[in-house]
Write a structure and sequence with these properties.
Helix content: 25-40%
Shape: globular
Strand order of the largest sheet: 2-3-1-4
Largest sheet: 4 strands, antiparallel
Number of helices: 2
């Protein structure tokens, strides 16, 4: 099993319910693709170091997970790049 850490930022101009639904949908996506989410944290709204897509703040989320292969990671990456609600994301392989 490979350990990964994913951090992503959701745009701040969404309602709180929408932000939670986005997070739940990404956790479900990872679980459905064979990953085991070991920890999931909402870090709250924070000031960005620099403006991203005309936003100065964003809602931060952190997910730790274990995966047999990189199928779930690739699918998360693909959908995060497509989603207009995610302004930035980072995936780290903790085993390397």
């Amino acid at each position: 099993m490979t350990n990964y850490e994913i951090m992503y930022i959701v745009r701040p101009n969404l309602e709180e319910d929408s932000i939670k639904k986005i997070h739940e949908s990404f956790v479900k996506l990872l679980n459905d693709n064979g990953a085991k989410v070991t920890e999931s944290k909402e870090l709250g709204q924070k000031q960005l170091a620099y403006e991203i897509k005309k936003f100065k703040t964003g809602y931060y989320f952190l997910i730790n997970l274990e995966a047999e292969n990189d199928k779930a990671i690739k699918e998360f990456d693909r959908l995060a790049l497509i989603s207009e609600d995610i302004i930035r994301h980072l995936i780290i392989n903790l085993d390397k």
